[in-house]
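Input chain follows. Return C-alpha cells only.
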Amino acid sequence: MTTTWLITGATGMLGQDVLERLRRDGEAAVGLARGGLDITDADAVHGAIDMHRPRIVVNCAAWTAVDDAEAREADALRVNGGGPRHLAEACARTGARLIQVSTDYVLAGDATSPCPEDAPTAPSGAYGRTKLAGEQAVRAALPDAGYVVRTAWLYGAGGGNFVDTMIELETVKDTVDVVDDQRGQPTWTVDLADRLVRLGQAALAGGAPAGVYHGTSGGETTWFGLAREIFRLLGADPGRVRPTTSTAFARPAPRPAYSVLGHERWRRTGIEPIRPWREALAAALPALLNEKKGSAR
C-alpha cells in the first residue's frame, strides 16, 4: 500500500507537530528521525523512498545550529543542502512531491517592509547559505513538484526555543535584558504544521502551484516585544523585561535585523495565512507550560 506522507526529522519540534496534525486528519504517514534516515546518505534516502513509496515528503530534518554553521559550514551544507538534494532527486524519480522547510536567513534581512515570496535571496551567513542551497536543489530537481516553505522565530513543545527560555527565566530572574533591534514574526510550530499539511493536501489535489511560500505568523514584533508579551500572559510584570541591542549579545553568526515575511502566495492558493502572533502565543502558552510541568515530574 502506498504511504501518502513521509516526514523526515520526525522527532524534532516541527516534525512532531506535523505528524500529530496528519494523525488528526487520518492521513497515512511515516515519520523518520535521524536514526531511521540520515538524509545526507543518498543511498539511504533513495532506499527509504522506495520502501515507503510516499506521494509527498515533508523535510523537517535540518542543521539548525546557526552559530555552529559559521565554523562548520561544510557539515551544515551536507545536511541543509545535500539532504534536500537527495530527497528531491528521489522524489523526482518516483513522482512524489516534496515540501522543504527553509528559513528567513536566506534573505538579506535588511528590508523595511514584509518580504514577498519572490524577494531576492542574499544570505549573510553560513546557515543561510546552506539553507539556500537546499532551496535551490529542490526547485531545480522538482520545478513542478517542489515546495519551499520559509519560516522564522519558531517555538513549540519538544525543543529548545526563545519562548521556553523566557518562561524559565521569568521564574528565576528579577529582570531580563532582551534584544529590541531585530524584528520578526514569532511562529508556533502547531500553526506551521497545519499549513504544511494543508499545502501538501492542496498539492496532491492539484490546487497548489510549486514554488516558495512563507510560513510565519501575522504581524511583527521584536524579541523584546515578544518577551514582554510572554511575561504578561504569565501574569508577570512586563516591566521586568528591559530592552537592549544586538551588540550586547554578540554571536558568531549575523542575525537578520528584519525578518518579516509576506504571505500573499497562500491567499492565491486559497489557504489562509497563519494567524497573528499574539493570538497564537496565547493559544500556545498553556500547552508549553503543561509540557514543562510534565518534564519536571
